[in-house]
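MOLECULE: protein
FOLLOWS: sequence and fold
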Amino acid sequence: MFCPKCGKKLNDDAQFCGSCGTSLAGRVQPVIQAAPPVAPPPIQKIVPPMAPPTMQQPIPPAAPPVMAQTPPPVAPPPPMQQAMPNQMPQVNYQPTNLQFEIFGGNLPGVTIKLNQGESIYTESGGMAWMNDGIVMETNMKGGLMKGLGRMMSGDSLFVATYTSTLPNQEITIASSFPGDIVSIKLEGQSIIAQKSAFLCAQPSVTLSAHIAKGVKTGLFGGEGFILQKLTGMGHVFLEIDGSLVERVLKPGERLKVDTGNVAAFEESVDYQAEMVKGFKNVLFGGEGLFLTTLTGPGKVWLQTMTLPGFAKQLIPFLPKPSGN
């Protein structure tokens, strides 16, 4: 505040001027109003620019409702006909796991259990006994040429097929020579066997003739030029002279066997005849002029006895005809 007379600056609550003594009573002091607070400027939000509107794919019209159709009635399958014991069922044979039992020791036989529709075939006259629910059919399996091949390899021209018409039927086939019976399950591979080794097999196994490789092998291998070949899927039974020994040859492994003691071998095994070395070995060794060599890989089945060797041992004991 200032004095109105002399202009000196005074306090706001002064009653008189200290410089000139002018009374200040009754004067209305000006009221200075504070300026209203200034509001801060509003904060503006930065809004990102909006993406341009995209074109919407048109919604395809709804498919018309499909009316449920009632399927046509299916005719029931024809009833299965039960084969009678004297009727041969017509079946498309598939190999199965046979149930069998080999018995008899040195005079062996094999009893095979057949379910309904299962079959086994053997050379004519090989069956020993069977249940009444098994029927027999004799034919030339594979035709004339295969029949002739079987006959040249030591078996008969005709084979007998035995088929079960009832569940759990048994058939027994006996070996024709003292020895052993071996069961081999083929899974597509081939087995070469000596003459007359075949006993019986499932119909899915094919029996045919096999020609030995090389003139020397055919003449001096001990089994001749023609052997038996078994190919297919399923079980096959072979009869072995004497006792049976099985060997598995590694690739390149060689085994020398006396002629005639080879019962069977896998087709992957190389089968050859080899001349015995040494003049004294040939004359006095007692093993003959040739030996059979088997070279792996593959499995071989050996036998301890040969039919010609057994017959040779019996000759001195056979009665001789007396001269008149």
